[in-house]
Amino acid sequence: MVNYHASVVSLVVALALACTWPGPLTAQRAVSESSMGNTLTLAIGDETFVATPVDNRTASAFKSLLPLSVRMSELNGNEKLFRLPASLPTQPSRPSSIQSGDVMLYGSDTLVLFYKSFATTYSYTRIARIDDPAGLERALGPGSVTVTLAVRQGK
């Protein structure tokens, strides 16, 4: 009789654990949830660009500010910039070259969107990179431009 009760208890415990075990559906859901919101959109006029943020505190802090619509000013014929209302955490480095589509932080509060590639000696903190920057320069145009940044929902 004791063996019977022990077997029944073991079976009940095993079934309970099986029901709560993180199986394939739970694992898939976790992957989907972690990748959701892991891209950004930059809307410029009629164009929308998708950017992948880097994995750092600066990008996380920046994403917490979104959605955000900003008027970016022209600088040097290769970038647009906007001074954020608050400082973000920084991890500056000297990238030696800038690529079209880089989204970076200059200092602790200046958002910079580069639309041309060039060599640099300045230090920046990486925030994101536009996945396909083709057409970015044309979309930004000359002078100041409004850019709406948001966390992309879904895949």
Automatic annotation (TrEMBL):
The keyword Metal-binding does not apply. The keyword Manganese does not apply. Residues 1-27 form the signal peptide. Residues 43-149 form the Cyclophilin-like domain. Pfam families: Cyclophil_like2 (PF18050). It comes from the Bacteria. Keywords: Signal. Gene3D superfamilies: 2.40.100.20. This is Cyclophilin-like domain-containing protein. It comes from Luteitalea pratensis. The lineage of its organism: Bacteria, Pseudomonadati, Acidobacteriota, Vicinamibacteria, Vicinamibacterales.
